[in-house]
């Protein structure tokens, strides 16, 4: 069975840091791009970042310079290191996988999805 297990969320003060993890299983990890998405209450889901199978990374403008995505093929895990967190980063964060990073922010992207992890940033 395909699984994407997101973890690492929590409550942090503004300016703090968190590292999210997404552990993958059930598919050939290196063949897939992995994306992080978030959804705040009352808002549409937003693409946060994406990493290709060869390590190319992409970020939405609002997190550029603060978030860094990486992947560890030995552990079939991707990470989202988040620094300088802001209250507007508060959301449920999801990871997803697809064969290509093309169109990663489009609505139809994401062959596999994991459950979310809550990130709450207090002011």
Share of helical residues? under 10%
Query: In this structure, how is the largest beta sheet organized?
Result: 7 strands, mixed
The DSSP helix count reads: 0
Structural class category = mainly beta
* Total beta strands: 11
Quick one: overall form? globular
Radius of gyration: 13 Å
State the separation between the terminal residues, measured CA to CA: 40 Å
**Low-confidence parts, pLDDT < 50 over ≥5 residues?**
none
Mean pLDDT over all positions: 97
Q: Report the portion of residues in β strands.
A: over 45%
Describe this structure in words.
The structure is a single chain. The model has no long low-confidence stretch (mean pLDDT 97). It contains no helices and eleven strands. A hairpin with a 4-residue loop joins strand 7 (67-72) and strand 8 (77-82). It has strands at 3-7, 10-13, 18-25, 33-39, 46-51, 57-59, 67-72, 77-82, 91-98, 112-113, 117-122. The N and C termini lie far apart (40 Å). The chain is globular and about 40 Å long. 34% of the residues are buried. The protein is mostly beta strands.
Features:
seven-stranded mixed beta sheet; four-stranded antiparallel beta sheet; mainly beta; 123 residues
In short:
By secondary structure, the chain is an all-beta fold.
């Amino acid at each position: 069975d395909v699984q994407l297990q997101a973890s690492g969320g929590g409550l942090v003060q503004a300016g703090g840091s968190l590292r999210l993890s997404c552990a993958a299983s059930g598919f050939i990890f290196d063949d897939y791009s992995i994306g992080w998405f978030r959804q705040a209450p009352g808002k549409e889901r937003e693409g946060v970042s994406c990493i290709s199978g060869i390590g190319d990374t992409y970020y939405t403008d609002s997190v550029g310079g603060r978030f860094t995505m990486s992947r560890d093929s030995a552990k079939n895990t991707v990470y989202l290191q988040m620094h300088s967190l802001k209250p507007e980063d508060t959301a449920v964060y999801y990871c997803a996988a697809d064969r290509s990073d093309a169109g990663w922010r489009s609505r139809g992207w994401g062959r596999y999805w994991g459950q979310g992890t809550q990130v709450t940033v207090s002011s």
